[in-house]
Design brief:
single chain, mainly alpha, 11 helices, globular
């Protein structure tokens, strides 16, 4: 699902180290101002009364499960694994570098189409393959979520989730963090963020990705109803939302009781030992390895099994500059 921008000089171009540094510095300044504002607000009696009335947790519905099952830990890893690959391959496509090879689907195999298959850059092919695996993993996650009742932990069932979420954010920003136990229940800010990721951002990423993929018809009613330009304008910001969510998620996991949180997420146990951390460390190595090895030509052999692969010759070396007289 392509992440190619409509303009190579987009304000969201993350290829410039200078621009990245400016964005990072701006984010630090804004965060510092937000902390100062939150700490000042906490000195107001009305705000403290609001926090006391809405401490950050809405009661869970009856029958909501307690604890995090092992399948959720595995799903957590695979979602992160495929997200890393999606970002990696998406940035390769976004760089607009010349593809080292092109791939054309073998139309003699399933799925057969009436029209001729479209030729794809090998980077786009890899991005689409990872997309398909991520979607399959997501579908399995949603099925298990409803089959085991875990959906009750991340789907808001009361409007109190809104003021409670505001209270949680205010408590975090004021550096007077709420007391919580994610083994029993998530705070309401977590509930809203997890709901947004699973049921809003992920479907939006899939829909816009499909629109940018060869699956979507290039002409006809569907092409007119959902223009490609709109899909491009939405697809990349959705990826940025996933990155922002992941960053905040990791920071809070490590800052609010790292060993216990990692045991919850990776070892499915409510403990404060180093078991979850060890599993997490191995998973980080796997993610780093996936990032380094996600090079399209390394998987060219696999691509060739499902279609015709045409390698492009390397560009000719640049001619040395002729010295002036």
């Amino acid at each position: 699902m392509s992440t190619v921008p409509s303009s190579p000089r987009s304000a969201l171009d993350l290829r410039s180290p200078k621009r990245l540094a400016i964005l990072a510095a701006g984010a630090v300044v804004l965060l510092g101002l937000a902390v100062l504002l939150a700490r000042w607000l906490r000195t107001l009696p009305e705000v403290e009364a609001f926090v006391a009335s809405y401490p950050g947790h809405s009661p869970l519905p009856q029958g909501a499960p307690v604890g995090i099952p092992a399948w959720l830990g595995w799903q957590h890893f695979f979602n992160a694994f495929f997200l890393v690959l999606l970002v990696r391959t998406g940035l390769i496509i976004r760089s607009k570098a010349r593809p080292p090879a092109f791939w054309t689907r073998d139309n003699t195999r399933w799925p057969r189409t009436k029209g001729a298959p479209r030729r794809l850059g090998i980077s786009v092919w890899l991005h689409l393959v990872v997309d398909a695996l991520w979607v399959l993993n997501g579908l399995l996650y949603v099925v298990l979520l409803f089959a085991t009742g875990q959906w009750l932990r991340i789907v808001p069932t009361s409007w109190d989730v809104v003021p409670n979420s505001i209270s949680v954010v205010l408590q975090y920003l004021s550096l007077d963090w709420p007391v919580e136990n994610s083994w029993v229940a998530y705070n309401d800010a977590q509930v809203l963020s997890y709901f947004a990721v699973v049921f809003l951002a992920a479907p939006l990423a899939v829909l816009t990705g499909l629109r940018l993929s060869p699956v979507w018809p290039m002409q006809g009613r569907l092409a007119r109803v959902f223009p490609e330009r709109l899909a491009r304008a939405v697809h990349f910001p959705v990826m940025l939302f996933f990155l922002l969510f992941t960053f905040v998620h990791v920071v809070l996991v490590l800052a609010t009781g790292a060993l216990r949180n990692l045991n919850h997420m990776y070892a499915s146990r409510d403990a404060s030992d180093w078991v979850g951390f060890a599993i997490f460390a191995v998973s980080v190595l796997a993610l780093v390895g996936a990032w380094v090895l996600a090079r399209p030509l390394l998987l060219a052999g696999l691509a060739g099994r499902f279609g015709q692969l045409r390698r492009m010759p390397p560009p000719p070396p640049a001619k040395p500059a002729t010295p002036r007289d």
